[in-house]
Amino acid sequence: xxxxxxxxSDGEAQLLREEKxxxxxxxxxxxxxxxxxxxxxxxxxxxxxxxxxxxxxxxxGVSAWxxxxxxxxxxxxxxxxxxxxxxxxxxxxxxxPRRVILHAHSRTAAQGSSTACLVTLGGRTLRYAxxxxxxxxxxxxxxxxYQSPTQQRRFNCPYTLRNGREALVFEGEFGVEPGxxxxxxxxxxxxxxxxxxxxxxxxxxxxxxxxxxxxSTIACTASLNSGDLNYKSPFECVAELEGVxxxxxxxxxxxxxxxxxxxxxxx
Length: 267
Ligand SMILES: [Mn+2]
Known about the structure:
Blueprint: H1 10-20, E1 24-33, E2 45-50, E3 55-61, H2 72-87, H3 97-107, E4 113-122, E5 125-131, E6 135-140, E7 143-147, E8 152-154, E9 157-158, E10 161-162, E11 170-175, E12 181-185, H4 187-190, H5 195-204, H6 211-226, H7 234-241, E13 254-263
Helix pairs in contact: 2-3
Bound molecules: manganese (II) ion (MN).
Protein name: Protein phosphatase
Cofactor: Mn(2+); Mg(2+)
GO molecular function, one term: metal ion binding
């Protein structure tokens, strides 16, 4: 009897290839620089790093709520706390970012609204859920290889998560390799720093800096740019295209998480 060899589907072949490769893990560090505001010393951003769940996330409370006397930072922080609680319910190694965001959204009771971006490493793939203009970039050999898309209704008006409103969550994934660097941040980072400037920071850094040290350099550079009237910021460029007058950097809270992707086996 002749048994014909069944041809593997693309997905099966990919799985087989992945199984032979070493598993990956990410090690992360962060820095948060809230903008100077005596009434809101904690700012309106929030973030967390969960090494255990191999998950990182940022959120950015919408400032416009201040006009109604509401501190959207409270919403953002509660959202991130609820996301951490949601992670505990996820199967090990198979975190579903959308489910975690929806869990957090449904349980956050504070008034306000916030953008959110949650990234998790499973196998050799980064999976993420994003709402609005927070996001992340992946650098390979100190060069940008991936940038998550943002979701906004119009200039400077991102999609957000809000109590009692339907959550429109964008999902995506990207295959990573050992040595890749993930830079996750709120718009305070990417409105004040081009990807080419992050590449420069990575290329100019000597030795073997920790993710925390890299996050600190990126956050501090974005912060310097944010207060520089003569710096033609990414925010200024987009504003110009939209016919909105804006000069220099953008004064904002700055949250950066840097995650280093490495092989699980000791090198
Ligand atoms: Mn912001």
